[in-house]
Design brief:
The chain is of the alpha/beta class. It folds into two domains: 256 residues, 3-Layer(aba) Sandwich (Aspartate Aminotransferase, domain 2), CATH 3.40.640; 132 residues, Aspartate Aminotransferase, domain 1, CATH 3.90.1150.10. It has 15 helices and twelve strands. The chain has a seven-stranded mixed beta sheet with strand order 1-7-6-5-4-2-3, sandwiched between helices. Strands 8-9-12-11-10 form a five-stranded mixed beta sheet. α1 packs antiparallel against α3. The N and C termini lie far apart (59 Å). It binds pyridoxal-5'-phosphate (PLP). The site of pyridoxal-5'-phosphate (PLP) has 14 residues, from α4. The site of pyridoxal-5'-phosphate has 14 residues, from α4.
Length: 400
Amino acid sequence: MASNDDRPTDETLGFDTLAVRAGYQRTNEGEHGEAIFATSSYVYESAAQAAARFSGDEPGNIYSRFTNPTVNAFERRLAALEGAERCVATASGMGAILTACLGTLKAGDHIVSSRAIFGSTVVLFDTILARFDIATTFVAQTDLDAWRAAIRPETKMLFLETPSNPVTEIADVAALAELAHAHGCLLVVDNAFCTPALQRPLELGADIVIHSATKYIDGQGRCIGGAVVGSEELVGGDVYGIVRTGGTSMSPFNAWVFLKGLETLRIRMEAHCRNAQRLAEWLEVQPAVTRVNYPGLTSHPQHALAAKQQTGFGGVLSFEVKGGQAGAWRLIDSTRLLSITANLGDTKTTITHPATTTHGRVDPAARAEAGVSDGLVRIAVGLEDIDDIKADLLRGLDLL
Ligand SMILES: *Cc1c(COP(=O)(O)O)cnc(C)c1O
């Protein structure tokens, strides 16, 4: 593509065009589909060229831990969709968070994080980073005063995920970006639930966006991968340096799956949102359901904020049923179509009991405070016919 000078530049192209065409450089073979570069290293024309590549004097491929054309194509395409200068792909979503932290923090620094974040991220902050003298204070996602009060002189990062899992609390990204910058901190937003098809945190003021590509970017539950997205200065410097030297790299095959996933991301997200909206509205009027959490419902306390910072309300919802844990388990065990698994972002609808799975290690008081009651069920709505999803749930709801 780069060889055709009359082609439009990326800045002039729309989201859907970038999703299909950005980032890939066609090889001499003239392939139309993007190639998978399954190679660990690259050959040079001379010793002098090898030296120039290694010293950085000449751009080009060196070794696939940190330079691979398929991985780079995925990085450029995702960066274009997030409206960012730079993206660095990683082996997993957790690898992306670790890489972003190692690249931007040092011993003695402090993180303020929403407590409503992915369970493994809590363990990473609380247990692993703590051993390297990086402390974390957890605060309520929606309480701006609590965020402000938790900031110390050594705070360097604010971290959140919005909407939160599983109760779909919305963080005010623009307000938290302003707070972060007033205190010289970075705002890091895990955008796995929305993807750039529904929410672009950098435009709202965030400094770094994290992805678990495992979820909607793949979209079909096949590969594990992640990404860190942001400015050339932040992400292209020390964050890339961690991938290069620390080796938290993405494989070319996975990069190819994610690269192709980006092409259909927008239409898939629209379909996930449509199904989730219909399911949420239907659940709200079921007698056995006492509460539904979905940002697309006007009953959601932050519906207006979600509508302001997202272009769609996402594919994940949760709801409380009568009968506590027994009721929730009865509903889950009555399904025949839905998959009983904790994964999300798949074409297949998944059903989870957070209190005994994803949040099972959280102590009961903290769990209750976070809204994860014993009767709470989470559904990541897939792309099946909505009437079949409803019918599958009705089997169990009728018993409660
Ligand atoms: C799954 C997930 C992660 C971790 O991603 P992996 O690819 O499983 O390592 C991080 N954040 C969120 C919001 C997730 O859903």
